[in-house]
Write a structure and sequence with these properties.
Largest sheet of chain B: 6 strands, mixed
CATH superfamily of the largest domain in chain B: P-loop containing nucleotide triphosphate hydrolases
Distance between the termini of chain B: 38 Å
Order of helices and strands of chain B: EEEHEEEHHHEHEHEEHHEEHEEEEEEEE
Shape of chain A: globular
Largest interface: A-B, 19 and 24 residues
CATH architecture of the largest domain in chain B: 3-Layer(aba) Sandwich
CATH class of the domain at 65-248 in chain A: Mainly Alpha
CATH architecture of the domain at 65-248 in chain A: Orthogonal Bundle
Order of helices and strands of chain A: HEEHHHHHHHHHHHH
Distance between the termini of chain A: 20 Å
CATH class of the largest domain in chain B: Alpha Beta
Bound molecules: adenosine-5'-triphosphate, magnesium ion
Radius of gyration of chain A: 23 Å
Number of domains of chain B: 2
Oligomer: heterodimer
Strand content of chain B: 25-35%
Number of helices of chain A: 13
Strand content of chain A: under 5%
Radius of gyration of chain B: 25 Å
Helix content of chain A: over 70%
Strand order of the largest sheet of chain B: 6-7-8-3-9-10
Number of strands of chain B: 20
C-alpha cells in the first residue's frame, strides 16, 4: 500500500521540494534550454553577433564526416566499456560472494575506485602507461609489446576503455554482489543435487536470475560511457591521436570551446540529451514490464 | 534404491577453539526401501544431518554410505539423491516442465525419454494442466507437488525430505501426507524425512529417529517408540498430549512424589502426594514415573491410586482432556466424552501396571 500524506497548506510541500527543484532548474533545465536555444543560432568568431539559422546546425552535423566518425568511436567505446566493466565486476562479485572469511575486507577494497574522480583516475592510468616513464608501459615493452598510445590509435582506445571501465567496475560490483546475495542458497543447492557443476549452476540458474540487475547496469554503464567519461579522455588522450578517441562528449568540448563553434556544439549536446532520454525511457519500460521472480 | 548407513556421524561448525559440535555421533542403518522419519525439536540438528547425506554440508567425522559406497568425499551430483526443500527451491525462471526436466537434462537423458518421464510424473501428481506455468503462478500445494515431481522423475537411490509439508495448511497437509505414503508404496525408494510434527512422524515412518540436541535418543518403529520410550525426552516428545512425568521416591508399592512448588501454592485442596502402585517399582529410590493421559482412568473412590484436582477441561468432541493437579504435579488425563469432570472436583484416578514407564531420575534413561 502506498502511503500518502495530505498537507493542509500548499506552501509546506513546495518548501520541502524547493531545494531539489532549484538544483534541477539551475543545473539541468537552464543549461538544457540554453543548449536548445543556442543550437538554433550561429555566432561569429568573436561572439559579438549571432544569427538565427533554424535547424542548419543539425543538418551541418549530419553532413559532417567527423561527427559520424565520432559517433562510431562512441558506440565502440561504450560497448567496450560496458562489456569490460560488467564482465570484470560480475567475475569479482561471484568470487567475493563465495569468500566467507574476510569478505567484508574484499568488498570494501573493491568499492574504493568508485570514489576516485574520473580525471584523477585518468591521470593515474596516463602515468602508468606513459610511453617513456610509465611502469605499465615499461612492463609491456619488456613483454615485447611496442606500447605508445600517443601514436597508436588502437592502443589509445584500449587505454581509455580500461581507464573508464576500471572506475565503473566497483559500482557494478556492488549491484552484482547484492543481486547474488538475493538469490536463495537453496536454489543453488537444488541445482547441485540435480547434478549441475559450478559453471552449469552459474549459467543455468545464477545468471538468468541476475538479468534485471544486469540490464539495469548495462543502461547505467552505457550512459556513463556516453556522458561521463570526459574527464578520463581529457586526462589520458585528449581525443587523440588523430581523433581516434574523440567520443561525442569530448567533441562537444573541442568544437565548442576550442573551435568556437558554439551553435554546432549546442546542437551536438541536444542530440546527446535525446539519446540519454531514449535510453532512460527504454530502461523504465523494461523495468515495468520485467517479471519479478 | 539403496541402503543408507550412518556410522558415528558428527558435525561441527567453525574450527579450532570456536568449533561447535551440533551432531554428536549418530549411528543408524536404513534398509533398502525403508521410510525413515527424523523427528525432534527445532534446532536439534535434523536438517544438518539430512544435508550431510545430500552432500550440502561437510561431514566432520564418521562415515555415510549410500548403497554400500562411502560418499563422504562425493559431490552432491555424484550421490544420486534427490531432495525436497522446505521452501521447495523451484527455479523461478523455468516452467514447471523445465523444473522437473532440469536434473535429467544435465544427466544427458534423451529428450523423448525426459518428456515421457515428466508427463508421467505430472499425471501422477495431477500437475498436467500446469506444466507450462512458472512456479510463481502456482498455489503453495501445487509448488510442493512440483518439488516432489522434480525428485520423482530423477528416480534416485534415496529421497531426502526436509519438512516438505510445513508450509501447507492443515487439510492439505493430511492429504499430501497420504499421497506421500502412496508414492512410497509405489516406488519403494529409500526415504529420509525430516519433521518436527509428531503426527507426521507417527503416520509416515516405518521407523523413527527421535533426535534431541544432536543425539539420536531412540531409533525404532513408531509404536515401539510410543510404547517403550527410551528416555524422558522421547516420552515427552512422542504422543499428544505429552506423557505425564512425575518425579519422586519409590518405596515398594508406594511412590511419594516431590511436589513442584507451583503445585503446592496453587492447589486447593492440597494435592495428594502419594501414589499407590499396582505393582512395586523396579527399584527403590529416586525415579521418574511416566503415565500417558490416555492411560489414566477414573475409578471408584476405593480403587483410586491417587486423587486428581481438576482445574480445566478441554473438550475436543470425541475426547476431553482434564488438566489439573495430582501426584504432586500438573497432570493431563483423557476422559471419555460422557464423563466430563467438573472443575474443582477431585477425581479418583487409576492406571494399569503395564502402563507405567519408569525412568532414571538422574539421566532420564528408561529403567523398565
Ligand atoms: N552454518 C552454521 N553455523 C553454525 N551453526 C549452525 C549452522 N547451521 C546450523 N547450525 C546450528 O546447528 C544446529 C542444528 O541446526 P539444524 O538446522 O540442523 O536444526 P533443525 O533440527 O533442522 O531445526 P528446525 O526444525 O528448526 O529446522 C542449530 O543449533 C543451529 O544453530
Ligand atoms: Mg531444519
Amino acid at each position: 500500500m502506498e502511503k500518502r500524506v495530505i498537507f493542509k497548506n500548499w506552501w509546506l510541500p513546495l518548501l520541502l521540494v524547493a531545494p531539489q527543484l532549484a538544483v534541477t532548474l539551475v543545473f539541468f533545465v537552464w543549461p538544457a534550454s540554453q543548449a536548445l536555444y543556442g543550437s538554433l543560432f550561429v555566432e561569429d568568431a568573436f561572439g559579438t553577433s549571432s544569427e538565427f539559422v533554424g535547424v542548419q546546425n543539425f543538418l551541418g552535423l549530419f553532413n559532417d564526416g567527423y561527427y559520424a566518425h565520432s559517433f562510431g568511436i562512441t558506440v565502440l567505446f561504450s560497448v567496450a566499456v560496458a562489456g569490460l566493466g560488467l564482465g570484470v565486476s560480475l567475475l569479482l562479485a561471484v568470487f567475493a560472494d563465495r569468500v566467507i572469511r574476510g569478505a567484508r575486507l574484499y568488498q570494501t577494497l573493491l568499492i574504493w575506485p568508485y570514489a576516485v574522480a574520473p580525471a584523477i583516475a585518468g591521470v593515474l592510468w596516463m602515468f602508468m602507461f606513459d610511453p617513456s616513464v610509465g611502469v605499465a608501459a615499461w612492463a609491456l615493452k619488456r613483454m615485447g609489446v611496442n606500447w605508445n598510445h600517443l601514436l597508436n590509435g588502437h592502443q589509445a582506445m584500449a587505454l581509455v576503455v580500461f581507464a573508464a571501465a576500471w572506475k565503473q567496475v566497483s559500482y557494478n560490483f556492488i549491484f552484482f554482489l547484492a543481486g547474488l546475495t538475493a538469490i536463495p542458497k537453496s536454489l543453488i543447492e537444488a541445482a547441485a543435487i540435480d547434478g549441475a557443476g559450478p559453471a552449469r549452476r552459474f549459467f543455468d540458474i545464477v545468471f538468468p536470475l541476475l538479468t534485471p540487475t544486469t540490464f539495469f547496469l548495462l543502461v547505467v554503464n552505457i550512459i556513463y560511457a556516453f556522458f561521463d567519461t570526459f574527464g578520463v579522455i581529457d586526462a589520458v588522450t585528449q581525443g587523440g591521436p588523430a581523433k581516434a578517441t574523440e567520443v561525442l562528449v569530448f567533441k562537444i568540448f573541442q568544437d565548442g570551446f576550442k573551435g568556437q563553434d558554439y551553435g554546432g556544439a549546442a546542437a551536438q549536446s541536444v542530440i546527446l540529451m535525446l539519446i540519454v532520454v531514449a535510453l532512460t525511457v527504454a530502461q523504465f519500460r523494461y523495468v515495468e514490464k520485467k517479471v519479478n521472480y | 534404491m539403496a541402503a543408507v548407513e550412518l556410522r558415528g556421524v558428527r558435525k561441527s561448525y567453525g574450527s579450532g577453539k570456536n568449533a561447535l559440535e551440533v551432531i554428536h555421533g549418530i549411528d543408524c542403518s536404513v534398509a533398502d526401501g525403508e521410510f525413515i522419519v527424523l523427528v525432534g525439536p527445532s534446532g536439534c540438528g535434523k536438517s544438518t544431518l539430512l544435508r550431510m547425506m545430500a552432500g550440502l554440508e561437510e561431514i566432520s567425522a564418521g562415515e555415510i554410505a549410500i548403497g554400500g559406497r562411502v560418499v563422504n568425499q562425493l559431490e552432491p551430483k555424484d550421490r544420486d539423491v534427490a531432495m525436497v526443500f522446505q521452501n521447495y527451491a523451484l527455479y523461478p525462471h523455468m516452467s514447471v516442465r523445465e523444473n522437473m526436466a532440469y536434473g535429467l537434462k544435465i544427466r544427458g537423458v534423451a529428450a523423448a525419454e525426459i518428456a515421457t518421464r515428466v508427463e508421467r510424473a505430472a499425471a501422477m501428481l495431477e500437475l498436467a494442466p500446469y506444466l507450462d506455468r512458472r512456479p510463481r503462478e502456482l498455489s503453495g500445494g501445487q509448488r510442493q507437488r512440483v518439488a516432489m515431481g522434480r525428485a520423482i522423475v530423477r528416480n534416485p537411490q534415496v529421497f531426502l525430505f526436509d519438512e516438505p509439508l510445513s508450509n501447507l495448511d492443515a487439510k492439505l497437509r493430511v492429504q499430501t501426507r497420504m499421497e506421500l505414503q502412496k508414492l512410497h508404496r509405489e516406488f519403494n525408494t529409500t526415504s529420509l524425512y525430516v519433521t518436527h510434527d509428531q503426527v507426521e512422524a507417527m503416520t509416515l515412518g516405518q521407523r523413527l529417529i527421535v533426535m534431541n540436541a544432536g543425539v539420536a535418543e531412540q531409533i525404532g518403529a513408531p509404536m515401539e517408540v510410543y510404547a517403550k520410550p527410551a528416555s524422558t525426552f522421547v516420552a515427552g516428545f512422542i504422543g499428544s498430549p505429552a506423557m505425564n512425568l512425575l518425579r519422586g521416591e519409590a518405596q515398594g508399592d508406594r511412590f511419594v512424589t516431590t511436589a513442584t512448588s507451583a503445585a503446592i501454592a496453587l492447589a486447593t485442596p492440597a494435592p495428594p502426594l502419594s501414589i499407590h502402585l499396582p505393582v512395586p517399582a523396579p527399584r527403590d529410590g529416586p525415579l521418574v514415573l511416566g503415565l500417558r493421559p490416555e492411560h489414566l482412568v477414573p475409578a471408584s473412590a476405593g480403587a483410586a491410586r491417587f486423587g486428581f484436582a481438576v482445574e480445566m477441561v478441554e473438550s475436543l468432541g470425541a475426547d476431553s482432556y482434564a488438566y489439573g493437579l495430582g501426584g504432586g504435579g500438573t497432570l493431563i488425563a483423557r476422559v471419555a466424552a460422557g464423563t466430563v469432570p467438573v472443575v474443582d472436583e477431585v477425581l479418583p484416578l487409576t492406571f494399569a501396571a503395564q502402563h507405567m514407564h519408569w525412568f532414571d531420575a538422574a539421566n532420564g534413561k528408561r529403567v523398565a
